[in-house]
Design brief:
The protein is mostly helical. The protein is built from 6 helices and no strands.
Length: 131
């Protein structure tokens, strides 16, 4: 496994783990950074926390891919799914709802950059298997 792939998987898995735990256990502080007030809003909190364990699971799969070569492809796929999925969804939201706060635009850009790194890693894996 290329070192760059291992680093990407560790980075992606670590970010996903930290974000999911912050969403689950410290949502007020986490979302306040984006100008979103959630205190006392049970329905909103429920909706925002809903994807947290999926994010955690995808992060764990990325971590597993960094540690075990046989799960390398799976980890790369999890990274594509997580980061491109969120990044592209945010772009659709911007097109349909208008631009969000600057911090959320920065998050979108970060997700897309990390997602594209995973796409590039996947492309390199496929190319090395073909040749």
């Amino acid at each position: 496994m290329p070192t760059a792939h291992r680093v990407l998987l560790i980075l992606g898995g670590t970010l996903a783990t930290i974000l999911s735990l912050a969403i689950l256990f410290s949502p007020a502080a986490f979302y306040a950074g984006y100008g979103i007030e959630v205190d006392g809003m049970t329905n909103l909190l429920n909706e925002l926390k809903a994807p947290a364990l999926v994010i955690l699971a995808l992060g764990a799969i990325q971590g597993l891919g960094a540690l075990q070569i046989r799960h390398h492809h799976l980890g790369i796929g999890a990274g594509i799914l997580l980061y491109m999925g969120f990044g592209l969804s945010r772009l659709v939201a911007m097109m349909t709802d208008g631009p969000p706060a600057h911090a959320l635009i920065a998050v979108t850009a970060s997700e897309l950059v990390i997602g594209l790194l995973f796409v590039f890693a996947y492309w390199r894996l496929k190319r090395s298997k073909a040749g």
